[in-house]
Amino acid sequence: MTPKTLDIPALRHATPDAFVLPPNIQTMLDRLDAHLVSLGDGRDCRSDNERANYSATVNTCRRLASGLRNAPQDLARTSSHLETVTALRQRWLDVQTEVEHEINTLRALSTTMDDQEFKRHIEPKYDLLQRRLQLLHDGTLLSGPGVTFGPLAWHDEQVAKWTTRRDQAQSTLDALVREAQELLKAAATTA
User: Fold this and answer.
1) Bridge partner list, 148
2) Number of Cβ within a 10 Å radius of residue 47
């Protein structure tokens, strides 16, 4: 069961135009574009091997350029999701801490009262807080109209899922950068 969670603006995807590439990635893209231009026209290749090498190099440059244009945005999007689900989990923990603190405060007050005064003033509040804590642990405590906090296990799953996705996006970007650097280094030594 997936609880209905809050609609947080950070979960909305930014338009592609709103994202600005990091300067080092943009520089690498400019160098890849320059390398593509320097390759010339494939029709000038004299043999099938030259055409195959030319085609493989062009395809690699295009794949790297496409990946380098998209990977930083993917990383930013997954990082944003991770921050959001981590904040939701922290909110759940804050509510738990707050309710437990109120329960402990009422317990401390109960030691200074007689039984009749306790039953009339404190016990209803104590029972209400105990029920609120139970609803929170069950994942059914409302955080707003028609929206629940969800169980902590669900929040933990979301944090783990988005951490994995963020790590995958980071490793993809790192691999693309390494491959582009190697290609450009090899192109510089052969030129």
Assistant:
1) 142
2) 8
SS3 99: helix
Q: Residues 32-68: pLDDT tens digits?
A: 999 998 888 878 878 888 889 889 999 999 999 999 9
Is the pTM higher than 0.85? The answer reads no
CA angle 55, 60, 62 (to 5 degrees): 95
Q: Which residues pair with 147 in a beta bridge?
A: 144
CA distance 163 to 158: 8
Give the three-state DSSP class for 147: strand
- What DSSP character marks residue 148? E
Question: Using CB atoms within 10 A of its CB, is residue 114 exposed (0-12), middle (13-18) or buried (19+)?
Answer: exposed
- What is the DSSP code (8-state) at residue 2? -
Secondary structure element (H or E) that encloses residue 142, with its range: strand 142-144
For the chain, domains (ranges, CATH) are 22-190 (1.10.287)
Query: How much is the average pLDDT of 95-115?
Result: 88
Q: Which amino acid appears at position 49 of this protein?
A: N
- The Cα–Cα gap between 94 and 97 comes to 5
